[in-house]
Every structure is written in C-alpha cells, then in structure tokens.
Amino acid sequence: MIFPWNKHLRSNGSVVARSRGPKDDCCQTHKLSAELLQSALSRGEIWPAFQPIVDLQSGAIVAFEILARWTDPIAGAISPTQFIPLAEQCGLIGDLTDKILREACVIALSWQGSFVLAINISPVQFHDHELSTRILRTVRSSGFPVHRVHVEITESALLENDPSVHATIASLKASGIGLALDDFGTGFASLTQLHAFPFNKLKIDMSFVRSMTVDSGSRKIIASVIGLGQSLGMTVVAEGVETEEQATLLRRMGCDLGQGWLFGKAENALETGKLIERRLVGDLSKRKPPAQLFHRVHQLDALYTASPIGLCLLDTNFVHTSVNPRFSAMFALSPDDMIGHTVHSFMPAHEADRVTSDLVKVLNGDTVVIEDYRPIGSDRVFFVINQRVDDDDGVAIGISVTAVDVTGYKTLETLLSQTEDHQRWSIDLSPNIPWASDAAGVVNFMGPTPDCSKIDVDARIEDWMARMHPEDRLRVRQQWLAWIPSGKPFQTMFRMRLGDDGFHWMLSRAKPHHGPDGKIIKWYGVITEMAAQQSLRDQLLRLENVGASPQDRSHDVTFICADNNYDQQIERPAKVYQKSEPHDGLSRSHYVSMLMRMFEGAPIAMSITTSDTRMSRYVKVNAAYLKMTGRSWEQIRGKTLLDAGSAIDNTDRNRRHQLLLDQGYYELEEVDIVRADGSKVPTLISAQRTTINGTSFDLEIIVDVSERVRQQREAENALKVSARTDALSGLPNRAYFDEVLLQRIAQARGPHDVLALAYMDLNGFKAINDTLGHLVGDEVLRVISSRLRSEFATQFVARVGGDEFALLIETDKFGAIGLQQMLYQHMQNVFKSISISGQTVTSGAAVGVTILCETDNAHSVLQRADDYMYIAKSTSQRIAVVYLGDIDQNFRGNEKIISAAT
C-alpha cells in the first residue's frame, strides 16, 4: 500500500473523488467525507485485496501484501490514493487497518500453504501507543499465526526521532511479527537507522525497478540495495516488477523476492483462492537464502586465487587491476609486482609493444586467442584468451585474460607426431597392419599408411585399398564376403604396394569377435608381408646359430606350425632348418646387434618368453611392450607370466598355451592387458612357438586396439540412443518407455515409494493437421515435447504414439498429495498458445493419472491410466486431468477431475 501524500485533494475534512460508477458510463464527481468513509466501513464496502509476492528463483508464492479496496455502490471503485489520506485526516486509519487485517487473516486461514501476510502501516499510526497491542489482538482473534504476519513501514515513519515510535517497532518485533522497510530508496532513512531497527525485509521502490532496463543508474542503485540488505541479513523484495526482462535482471543481481503485475495483480479472496490452488506456494521461513554479497565476494576471491589457471583483469588503460598467483608465475613475478602496472614495466619493449597491440584489438571488440604463447625466459607454453569486459550498457570497462599451461599437451602432441611418423617409416621393419570390420564385413578401421597425409580412418582405408594390386581386389573381396557366414578364422594372400619398389606379397588374417549372445559383432584382422615374415624366422634361426659351438650345429631346429583349412593356399614352413653361418657377410656380433636393435625399436609391442606353460618366464621384451604395460624391465624380469604384478595376468593364458602346444601358434586373441596403474588396454595378440636346441620359446606380437574399441563403443551407444529415441520429438519412444516402466515398477516397491503414471492425448491436434497441414502439426508436436521436457525435467517423459505422451513421476505419499495441483500447473504452461509462421495455434490435452498399487503390473497400471484419459476426454475441456487422489483407499470411484475453460 502506497501513501501518495501530495496527490489527493483535501477540503475541510473531505476529499473529492473522481471515478466511474458501475451503473452509468459517465464520469461523476463524488465527494468523500468522514461520515461516508465511516458508513463504508460499517457496510463492508471496504475489503482486503491480496497481491502475491514470489520467490524469484523458484517462482513460488511466499507472501501476499494486503491492500485496501473500496467499492462504492454509486461511485464504483474508489482509489486508495483518495480514501487513505481521508482516513488519516479523520482518525479512521486505525479502524480501517483493524478491519482489513482481521478479514484478511480469517480468509487466509482457510488457504493451503505457509505464506506470509504483509500489511502497510501508515506513519501517523505510530503515534498510537496502543498500535502494537491492537495489531496483536486483531491477528490472534482471527486464529492466524502471528509469526506469519509482517508489518511494512515506510521510511517517513523513521524520520521522526520519537522514542514512542521506536518502542512500538520494538514491541512488534518482540511479539513475533516480522518487519519490512517499504519503498526503500525514496526517503531519507540513514544507515544508522537501518542497522538499528530489526527489519526482516527490505523493499526496493518500484520507481527504480520500472526504469532499470533503460537506466544504468537505477540498475546500480538496485544492485547496491540488494547487497546492503542481504549483508544485514534482510530478505530483499523488488516492487513493481512488470516484465520478464526486469525479473531476469533481478535474478541475476541475486534479488530474493519480486512483487508486481508480472506475478499477479491485487485480487479479491475468491480469485486469490483459485490462484493458490494452481500455483506453487512456498514457506518464506524455510527459504534458503543465497550467499550474502560479501560472502560471495570472498568465495569468488578464494576461487580466483586458488584457480589452477592464470587469471588477470586490466582496466581500459591496460593497467593490471587484479592478478592471481598462477598468472604472475608465468613471468616469475608475484601479483603485487604486476598490480598497478602495465606490461611495459616487466616485459622487454618489443614484447610489450606486441602485447599492447593485441590489447588494443581486444578493447575494440575482438577476442584475441594465442594458442602457443611462450613468455620470454620461460620454457612453459600457454594457451591465452583475451576478452573485453563490458558493463550492462555494453560499455567496455576492462579486459579479462585467461592463461592455461599447455606445456604437457604440447610435449605429448610432439611425441604423438613423432610416434605416428615412426610408425609410417617402420612399416617395412614391422609389417603388421591392423584392420577391423563390422559383422557384415565392411572394413571400418585400418592402421597408418606410408602416406603421412592420410590422417583419418576413411582416408587410410581408401589408401590401403588403392595400394592393393588391381587383379587381386575383386578376388579378395569375393573370398572375404563368401567366407563371413562360416564364422571361422579367415586368411588370404594378395599383392600390395608398400613403397615405390613394386608390389609385395601380403598375408591377411582375421578372426571373429562374438557378443554376449554368441553372435559375431565384428572382425579383427592383421596384414603381414610374407617375405618379412619368412625373413624374421630366418633371422631368429641365425641369431641362435651365432655363438653356437661346432658340435651344436648338427642339431635340428624346427618351427612348429599346425595345418589348417588354408594349407592349400599357404605353405607353412615345416622343414628342418640347419644352423649355419650368416651368408650376408655380417660378423656374428654385428648380426646380433642389428637384430636386437630391430626388436627393441619396433613400434609394436613384442615379447620373448620361455615355453613352460604356467611357469613361463620373460626372456626379453621391447620398449613398446614396457610402454603399453606401464612397467619397467626390472619389475617383470624373471617373473612367471602368472605371477602377481606380471604384465599379462589373464585367465585365458592357459588356453593360449594349449594352442601353442597343439598347433605351435595362435592369432588375434583378444586380451585385456592390465597396466601397472590398474587400467586395462584391449589388445590383439598373435604368438609363434619356436624350438631351438630342444628349448621352446614363444614370440608374442601385441597390437593395441583401444582406440578402435572406443570408437566401436561410441557407435554402439549412439545406435542404442537412436533406437530408444523418437525422431520427431527427441523424447524417448514407446519401446524405451515400456522398458523403463518395468524397471520403475520393480524399484517402486518400498513402503514410502509412490510411482504415478500420467497418460495424455492431445486435444484438437487432428484439426491442426487438417487445417494447417502436417508441417505445422509436426512443429506443434516438437514445441509441446520441448515444453514437457522442460516442465518435467526430473521425471521420465516419452512420446508413445502419434499425439500421445506418457509421464512417470516418482514421489512419496506426501508428494502425491500435491500431485493434482502440480500437474495442472505444469499442463497450463505446456499448452500455452504456440506461434508458428505468424499463426497462433492452441491445443490442449486429456490426461489420465493413476498411482501404482501393490497388485499392479505394467499392463494394469497402463490400462487404468488410459481409462482415466478417456474419462478426461469426455469432459470436452481443452485441458482436463482425471487423477486418483487418495493413495490409501481403493482405486475405484475416487477420481477427481480438474479442467480449464474451453
């Protein structure tokens, strides 16, 4: 209630009121007098109106301000700006306040919720020594809780330094009544008075709120008042909020509550009761206040200081105004060394000029990003972002600089680049080219090619295919596709160009990978140069032969290879190799050195172990093996393969050893290698057993396929999401809804758990399609789906048919009590008018809601919700909800219908 002291006309105890009467259309002059006002009070023509005050963060109504309204049978509505001054002048303001407060408390006592009632007390009333007693007596006689009543006091009441005024305010506070300082900012209340009086609320005058979107001064005043009030422990209310833009700004500033026509105008008791039924009502005493401004400043300062990245702010003159330790450390300085200075104070002139030039660009509106900034004299590398900082009016007030230390990433990037180049140049030395395909045989991965420009997987596949001999391409493809249905390991030979020295004969092998259901889900393969494979065997023979005594050279050396279905295509070496001297002119020492360097430098992990099954021990591993397993040679030297901490401790090792024993090799075995840090690396391992002088050794070659597995899993997850999602709405589809419904039913069997199912069918949707077309109909479905997802963000919403949706709500018995109000409120928001291509489209829904009982299954609860939906449909209302209200009684005969006007 506002007291416009200079806006009424006074004349000898009377006020001239100009208003429009309800019984005629003309303006008439109505002379107000004390007698007329007294008569209006006795006849009940003056009544309480209620204007909501809402929580700006949640939107819940937490209070109502009680405003006096006068409806004269002749003059109609008489403005408070006319009769309130008359009541003060004639000494009737106390009686008016008592009447309005008593009626408001009696009415509000019947409403649900723990909201507060606030009433404005005129400054002249504070001269009444019985004011506190009268207010308490009035509230207590109504039965309304005293602690839920707030008295609003204007600043002018504080200006009179009257001890009786102070005593009245103290008495009200001591009785449990809350105090609010109204219209703050328009009077002359001092900070001393503000601190001295125990106010609960501080109300910002509407004049500042109404101009805040166009006046930066108003915004600054509001921000200051919010900070001041919250720092003194007060709840801050903004009056006169009329637009969503104002509300958004106030939320950003941290304002607690809002009041104004945006949230609702002052209404009579009947309309206010309806408002409470459809709006969320909160408890102001339980509202969690935001962190106070000075607390937030300290929190931000702590975060700023402890931030793991460098941060600094410069003013428009490029002077450092704030610097955190990470940023100053870039230049081997402290924050104090930089604050108050420009870059010219600590950088060489040429570097400072370059940085200043970038800052000028930023101040002119550009965002300057430096990906590789290296401070002079430092070995660190930083990723730096320079951005302009503007105030609410878009005026530049400084520059924000963020610096991230990327030295480690740059080092890793260099190493990866070197590794990639090493792999390309080493294809001849390590002729194993990994590849993979899907279950249908479509190749979707191949390793690096000699062409360094082929980076992505598709380019690699295309390059490798182009390198295959033209005469072999069709034959190999036909063999591969014809073989897939067998599900058995595959291998074939073909010619391929590796470099500029012509074609080489290659051996390609593949093995199927099965899913949990036993079906093939992918194939893994490897391509090996046959000449290099044979050369490797010969080199191992020569290695063993070097250093052997003459009498040893009469012993045979046999490479054990098993026969299989491909012996007709590939002849495995089954003959006995005699030890001999190297025939290439190399000395034994040079030959051993060369082979060891080839083994140790190969980019693919390799190991040599003894062939003692469970007691096999490591003989030699290369650097790539140690890198893959995350272990050092000292950690695994001499260990058996099944020792705790060994590089490959896999439950299937015994089976693989049996393969080596039975056939002398195994290929493309899927093994998860456990690294030293506990992480797992998916790999494909191939092994060959070699017997030298009666002693068997196993050579393993291990290919890391973790990237391919990651890509495969991402693809599988994407397919799973696609299979579960309705393409038009983006919501879960019917199949996924059925799956989730079964899961939720199984979970909602606790004594306090409640699972509600809402089944809805759109009203008027067919007419939209028929009159406006299916494109508009599709857009309507998208908008409604988006609104459903927003309104029920924490619940499961699905599109289960053309214009049918389902909603699963998990709550408890107490939440179920308020389910009716909550659903209806959200449906009002979902089915607001939609503007499409200049046309306004309005739709609604029939909603059937039921609650899961102990004997229900998915079919029965869905059927009951569907039945209720058809009952709602029969009401012919635009929005109708049929809801089972009482969860503790039988389901039948206990439906409640809520509907909106058509």
TrEMBL record:
Occurrences of domain GGDEF (ranges): 753-886
Entry-linked InterPro entries: Biofilm_reg_signaling, EAL_dom, EAL_sf, GGDEF_dom, Nucleotide_cyclase, PAS, PAS-like_dom_sf, PAS_4
CDD domains, alphabetized: EAL (cd01948), GGDEF (cd01949), PAS (cd00130)
Domain EAL: 30-280
A Pfam family annotated for this UniProt entry: GGDEF
PANTHER family: BIOFILM ARCHITECTURE MAINTENANCE PROTEIN MBAA, DIGUANYLATE CYCLASE DGCP
Protein name (database record): EAL domain-containing protein
Organism: Agrobacterium larrymoorei
